[in-house]
Amino acid sequence: MLCLYEIAMETDQIAAALARIGVIMRSFAWEQSEGADLTPTQAQILARLAARGPSRTGSLAADLGVTQPTVSDAVAALLRKGHVARGPDLRDGRAVLLRLTESGRRQAEAAATPPPALLAALDTLSLKDRDAMQRALIGLIRALQVARAIPVQRMCVTCAHFRPHAHDDADSPHHCAFVDAAFGDAALRIDCGDHEDAAEEDLAQIWARFSQVA
Ligand code: SF4
Known about the structure:
By secondary structure, the chain is mostly helical.
């Protein structure tokens, strides 16, 4: 059993390792966005619109965890470059939605591409290690979300349609009530377009049931 000092050392080391991985993510994002004449915020907005469809400026700011003026400046630049266009929100006549143009869609695909070096490094891990990493990262993102340290993520583990360990099948133990299908850990989603927020009082129970089986 680890003592408190060893636990603190371990969490420090994990935080240091995540920071190292963050370096490659940031430097690749900078390279990609510079080559495409986009700032990182502009590239993130394009990637977000591609993942979530037409959106309001306010929801983009909330999703990216930045201020509305920051998003407004980036959107103005994207409008000038022709990567996004404004259109009416049919559900609310006073609201305006931003959507990708064809050139914006092409840029978004490039912006959403993970660093090839990171994908190659992940390929060197065993399936078991990747599964364990995915579960741990989902737990970490959820904890950050609960602590309101990051914007809300559309993950299975916070979704009203998620039924963890609903099936007696080691490969596909979970159930998505939205598509009425069983699935395994490898298919757990971090950003799902069909996500629906689970009720606040159900979140802890969903997590407890999901995490009870390692
Ligand atoms: S709707 Fe999406 S987020 Fe919700 S359980 Fe199904 S796959 Fe997961």
